[in-house]
Amino acid sequence: MSASTKETVTVTNNSTGKQVDFPLHSGTIGPKVMDIRSLYSQMDLFTYDPGFTSTGSCKSTITYIDGDEGVLLHRGYPIDQLAEHSDFMEVAYLLLKGELPNVKEKADFIKAITYHSMVHEQINFFYRGFRRDSHPMAVLCAVVGSMAAFYHDSIDIHLPKDRMIAQHRLIAKMPTIIAWAYKYALGQPFMYPKNSMGYSENFLHMMFATPCEEYKVSPILAKAMDRILILHADHEQNASTSTVRLAGSSGANPFACIAAGIASLWGPAHGGANEAVLAMLQEIGSIDHIPEYIKRAKDKDDNFRLMGFGHRVYKNYDPRAKIMQRTCKEVLDELDMHDDPLLKLAMELERIALSDEYFIEKKLYPNVDFYSGIIFRAMGIPTSMFTSLFALARTVGWVAQWNEMIEDTDQKIGRPRQLYMGAPKRDFVPLNKRP
Ligand code: CMC
After folding, report:
1. Whose CA is nearest to atom 30 of ligand 1?
2. 408 noted as active-site residue
3. What gap in Å lies between CA 90 and CA 96, rounded to an integer?
4. pLDDT tens-digit readout, 309-359
5. Active-site residue 270, yes or no?
6. What is the per-residue pLDDT across 94-106, written as a single tens digit (0 to 9) for each?
7. Cβ neighbours around 177 below 10 Å, total
């Protein structure tokens, strides 16, 4: 590890009196990290950290978050500047390669992604095995996992070129796979990707066009979709990204690793929150009912939580949520829906929660998922598809982090230890002798 300082932290075992110095490493920014890799060999101890709240699982150069200040940087660039001035393809390039592309690099990258967007025609038949009412995340997980069967022998994960092609395939095919999951649920024909369109425009086209008539994607909605994809593209070592890294640490096929990430993202505490926010707003129903739900969110005996509020890392306003709120207003204006009752309800809920002692004290602020569902709904995207759109964007982060892990010379198969609380060693009792 290159970031070593001369500083150490001394750990003393008060029972044995044994003392060991552990090195401290410092990153470019952020808190220092204590290197405990030799803890077990030197002290015969493991750490105990459920939820990994104090554990750095890897070193990374991709994304930096300062949760107290509400800062999110990709390769050093603030998220608000990227959302304002860049586009999703450029941000994808930045996350994968480390630098913003020049004109030629950008054109080449877009071409590479565009020409991988069609999926193998056999995948078309794979969908037909699902019930039409299957949850799109279940379909997505299975179809992406099945791609391992199409591209297994052709990938040597130790070759940078093979990894790059796998990254491009995943970014390129994800819009097609997601739009087809939607079309399948509707019983409409699959729309094939159109190479003349931009990434977000093409996705909306595959979602909403039919072969029967011309469909024009609104440039404002395509831009809003592109911005939403930027806001969800990466978020350092969150649950799904850590899942991808852990699955990949065994050398598994990248398509299988991304399918594992999709499964992890699905949960309501993670990417499933955007779907849960809309369900919650619909359940609350009107501004008069907000106090009742705020009361429930604060009640320890009630497992209701304010969805779209709180974050493991942000103890300040999630910087993505601010941009999302602005985008939400722009989209609703474009669609002539500025009086949308759900937006009004969400804004009032946010206002009341942010002035409530419980939320202030626990530093619970709106997160990225709080407004995204309202935008998706206004665009005509059904609630069950929301988390798939998060997966569409996060695929870029997943493949960038997967590649970084494989290139890391410190990388080992992920294998945490445990605090065993089960029965001590005992002898087997035959069935006829058991009480
Ligand atoms: N509503 C009410 N109380 C909450 C909420 C909430 N949304 N979030 C946290 N708390 C309380 C929690 O009860 C706990 O109280 P106490 O200290 O008295 O036990 C305290 O705040 C800390 O919560 P925690 O669950 O220990 O914190 P965590 O870091 O493990 O959880 C979280 C983070 C995002 C899972 C949680 O805030 C939550 O469940 N939020 C709602 C779901 C949500 O919006 N998820 C999307 C996250 S952002 C998108 C993404 O990255 O996927």
Report:
1. 312
2. no
3. 10
4. 999 999 988 999 989 988 988 898 889 888 889 889 999 999 999 999 999
5. no
6. 999 999 999 999 9
7. 24
With H, G, I as helix, E, B as strand and everything else as coil, classify residue 435: coil
Taking the centre of ligand 1 as the mean of its atom positions, its distance from the CA of residue 267, in whole angstroms, is 13
pTM above 0.90, yes or no: yes
| 3-state SS, residue 398 | helix
33: part of which helix (H) or strand (E)? strand 33-34
Residue 64's SS3 state is strand
Residues 225 and 216: their CA atoms lie apart, in Å, by 15
Look up residue 107 and give its DSSP letter.
Answer: H
**Collapsed DSSP state (helix, strand, coil) of residue 7:** strand
Phi first, then psi: what are they for 352, rounded to 5°? Answer: -65, -45
Going edge to edge, which strands form the sheet with 77-78?
Answer: 63-66, 71-74, 77-78
Cβ < 6 A, ligand 1 pocket? 235, 238, 269-271, 273, 297, 305-312, 362, 364, 367-369
Encoding tokens for residue 239? Answer: 């649950």
| Nearest Cα residue to atom 24 of ligand 1 | 312
Q: Provide the 8-state DSSP code for 73.
A: E
Q: What span, in angstroms and rounded, lies between the C-alpha atoms of 230 and 223?
A: 11
CA dist., res. 200 & res. 221, Å (int): 9
State the distance between the two ends of the chain, measured CA to CA, in whole angstroms: 56
Q: Is the CB of residue 130 less than 8 Å from the CB of residue 184?
A: yes
Q: What atom of ligand 1 comes closest to residue 311's alpha carbon?
A: 34
Q: What phi and psi values does residue 285 have, to the nearest 5 degrees?
A: 80, -50
